[in-house]
Amino acid sequence: MGSKKGIVVTLVILIGVVAASFLFYLIPEDTKMKLIVSDFERNLDDIDERTLILSTGIEESFEGLSNHRLTSEEYFVTAGITQSQVNSLIIELTLSNPPQEWVASYKTYVDALKKLNGQITETIIAAKLMNDGDNSDSINEIISKIYELRAESLDLIEKSDSLRP
């Protein structure tokens, strides 16, 4: 009969081999992220609701910055978080792999979300100028661009709705 040390070493090796073999079955070979959607209309409706909440929130925050109820730093944090959430929505739509009849609607909605991200970027630029005490002409130009991007985003959302099967 072997010593206790020999039995322990053998058990450790045996457990290590068994654990390593199970890892081959537990770790997936294809590590690409997949999002499975079965109701594409409902998915787009949910994203539309979240988009409305995000766009309304960022507009209210920008208004709060303009009215000096928010500091620039607070606005930068809010805008960064909102952009991250919009990016998540873009990724969600992109990875949902819609059937052919939904592709145009989904792609158009992704374009709308990109315009929303552009709008948020412009508000950040305006906030930096406000923080630096820059002249109102450049801020007014940026604000008009913000409204233009917002209108384009809303038009693309309407177009996405009209492209639904």
From TrEMBL:
List membrane-spanning regions: 6-27
Keywords assigned by UniProt, alphabetized: Membrane, Transmembrane, Transmembrane helix
Q: What is this protein called?
A: Chemotaxis methyl-accepting receptor HlyB-like 4HB MCP domain-containing protein
UniProt source species: marine metagenome
